[in-house]
Amino acid sequence: MPKTQSPEYFGGQALIEGVMMQGSQGYAMAARAAGGRIVYKCGKRRSFKSRSKLFSLPLIRGVISFAESIYVGFSSLTWSAFQSGEEEEEQLSWKEMAFAIVTALLLTIVFFVILPVFAASFTLEYLGPFGRSLVEGLIRVALFLGYIIAIRRLPDIARVFEYHGAEHKTINAWEAGLPLTVENVKKQSRINCRCGTSFIMMSLILMVIVFTFIGNTGVLGRIITKIIAMPLVMGIAYEVFRLPLKYPNNKLVQILIAPGLWIQRLTTKEPDAKEIEVALTALLKVPAFPGAAYNQLPADIISEAELEAEKQAPQPKATITTEGI
């Protein structure tokens, strides 16, 4: 990011063979199509936090941001799956989207609330309430780490993690004030303090602290109380998550975010040049992106609208000649 400009932070998400980037004015998605070209789509999108002062209040904005990221994430993944040729339908219906989100949330509650509470309940007699809460937290972190370690070995997920690295490297190059080229992006770290993975890790750690103050209730009571308290945990985690923006050199802040930065070494991989090109396309196509005027787009890109028009265009008819018969 050029030093003379006031900072505007851009974020993103790794997709299936693609990357989504977003800023205050809108979003852009880019994906490598089956034929090798980069297909992109961009548009305006106002964050819910900007629509109401209530949604921008501390703690509340964290819950709103989490809910918004879930919806945007699912819709972006669906788009990229279609572009890469893995799905036949481009968009999920509202019912299908709602079902997918609810299913994901229920699985999260089962694995990160219900299972740890049941497993740790047997330690109460030996460790007491505080020890039980600590064991619950350790089980959550172990489940999260185990899940990431297991899926990162899958070829398709490994590709997503490479695009995750490309997303981070591209944003880091922009914030370092460098020209957005493949060579410059390659040299950047694949770790970024504003990554959603860091937010999840921070939430898991804060669950240990917040849930320690829950009274010595039964298993069912603890499960219900923790489900109700989860929005509070997300709200606090989001405020801690934002601290590096205000206090990047503060030692305490660096200690707080260290676990999230470490976990990114598992959720990102080194991208190749083609994956970086996709991330560059996504960032440069974000509406009102300041660097679009003086950075060059990768070659062989096409908008989704142009691609659709190309598909709809009548194909030239083959002619039959009698010459030589």
UniProtKB/TrEMBL annotation:
<keyword id="KW-1133">Transmembrane helix</keyword>
<keyword id="KW-0472">Membrane</keyword>
<protein>
    <submittedName>
        <fullName>DUF1385 domain-containing protein</fullName>
    </submittedName>
</protein>
<feature type="transmembrane region" description="Helical">
    <location>
        <begin position="97"/>
        <end position="124"/>
    </location>
</feature>
<dbReference type="Pfam" id="PF07136">
    <property type="entry name" value="DUF1385"/>
</dbReference>
<feature type="transmembrane region" description="Helical">
    <location>
        <begin position="220"/>
        <end position="241"/>
    </location>
</feature>
<dbReference type="InterPro" id="IPR010787">
    <property type="entry name" value="DUF1385"/>
</dbReference>
<keyword id="KW-0812">Transmembrane</keyword>
<feature type="transmembrane region" description="Helical">
    <location>
        <begin position="195"/>
        <end position="214"/>
    </location>
</feature>
